[in-house]
Amino acid sequence: MVLNKDTAKKTAELLLQINAIKLEPENPFTWASGWKSPIYCDNRVMLSYPKIRSYVGEEMAKQVETLYGKPDVIAGVATGAIGIGVLVAEAMGLPFIYVRPEPKSHGRQNQIEGYLEPGQSVVVIEDLISTGKSSLNAVKALKAQQANVLGMIAIFTYGFATATDNFSNENVELHTLSDYDHLIEQASETNYIKESHLQTLLQWKSNPQQWK
């Protein structure tokens, strides 16, 4: 769920400007899942642009405070959300931890890096939501260590129905700075995309597995 339409459109515009998000309906990308897609999103690019990363970090921190007050800990999902999670934690003056996809195979075999006490309240920071499975895997790891997970805030979501279902099934609250609908609206208004491509981009979201 997007909290603020203006923030959603500005975030989308900034990500388009630096090519963190690319829209290419005529030359679709192939995701690791094998899906064909007219959009590719790599929000880590944002970390190379100080003003934009500061804006995103500050807006996420504001949303954390608006939704949850001041949690005990901010957690980033490795690897994409480690950088932005640190920025959010720094803006709020809070401890930071991050969650690996799985425990390390050596050393202390940690899946959660950093200090977390049982019962502490945690807000999870993510960079991108597709199906939500990897993000929810991090939530499960935190809950296994008796963390009180208040919710998750991500930079961007494609808005797939399967992601909505996955978060609902796990009873995890998700909010994002921006999403696919606001991205397409902003791209259309600023002539970033051709009018002839608009319908194609809207059709993709409705059935991404079968597109092309």
Task: Give a description of the structure.
This protein is an alpha/beta fold and 212 residues long. Helix content is 41%, strand content 22%. A hairpin with a 5-residue loop joins strand 2 (29-30) and strand 3 (36-37). The two termini are 28 Å apart.
Helix/strand layout:
Elements: H1 5-17, E1 21-23, E2 29-30, E3 36-37, E4 39-41, H2 50-68, E5 73-77, H3 82-92, E6 96-99, E7 112-113, E8 121-129, H4 133-144, E9 148-157, H5 161-169, E10 174-179, H6 180-189, H7 195-206
Parallel strand pairs: 5-6, 5-8, 8-9, 9-10
Antiparallel strand pairs: 1-4, 2-3, 6-7
Helix pairs in contact: 1-6, 2-3, 6-7
Main beta sheet strand tally, sense and closure: 6 strands, mixed
Relative helix content: 40-55%
- Strand composition percent: 15-25%
Average pLDDT for all residues: 94
Number of β-strand runs? 10
Radius of gyration, whole Å = 17 Å
Record the strand order, biggest sheet: 7-6-5-8-9-10
N-to-C series of helices and strands: HEEEEHEHEEEHEHEHH
Determine the N-to-C terminus distance.
28 Å
Assign the structural class, choosing from mainly alpha, mainly beta, alpha/beta, alpha+beta, or little secondary structure: alpha/beta
Looking at the structure, what is the overall shape? globular
Number of helices: 7
- Low-confidence runs of at least 5 consecutive residues: none
Key attributes of the depicted protein:
212 residues; 22% strand; single chain; alpha/beta; two-stranded antiparallel sheet; six-stranded mixed beta sheet
In short:
The model has no long low-confidence stretch (mean pLDDT 94).
